[in-house]
Fold:
Amino acid sequence: MSHYSKILFDPKNNKFCLEPEGRDNPPNITDEMLDTASRILNVIHNVLGIKPEDVLIKTRKREITEARYNFFAMMRFSFSKLSYQEIGAFVEGKKSSIGMDHSSVHHAEITHNNNCDTDSQYRIRAKAIEDIFKENVLPEEALLNRTFSFKEMKEVLIRNGVPRPFFSREMFPEKFAMKVKTSVNEL
Structure:
C-alpha cells in the first residue's frame, strides 16, 4: 500500500483520516470505515480507559495490548471483507504508530480469541466492548449485571460518568468478583 495515502489517527479529533499528501485512497477503505474504526477506538476508551491514540503506540503493556487486540477483533467483525494487511494499515504511517503487517493482525485476532476462551475478566471486558459497539448501548448498560472485581467495576463506572451505584460486597474480600446492584429507583 506504499503508493496510496496512509491512514492516520488524529488525536485532536479522535478520528482516523487519510494522509492529505497521498496520491490515491487505499483500495477498499471508505470514509465509513474510517469513522467506524474511530468509533471502535472511542468505545475501547470508554470501557478500558485507554486513550484512542495510545492503542496505536508501540508498547507491550498489557492494558494497551488488550485494547489493541479488541480493536483488531472489532475491525475483523465490522469489515470481514478487509484483508489483514488492510486492517493493519490502520496502525501504520505515523512515527509513533505500530506499523502492523498481516501476520501481526492475525496474531492479535488469535490471541483475542484465546484470551476470551481462557480469561474470564478479559472475556467480560471484550463482551462489553462488543455490546456497546454492536447495539449502541450506553457503557453502563453493557456492564450492569456482569461479574467484575469491585475495583474494576468502580473504575469503569466512574470513568463513564455513571452515578455512584450501590454495591453489594456480601462480606467477601475485594479480590472476589461481585455483582453490581443498580436500578433507576436506587439511584
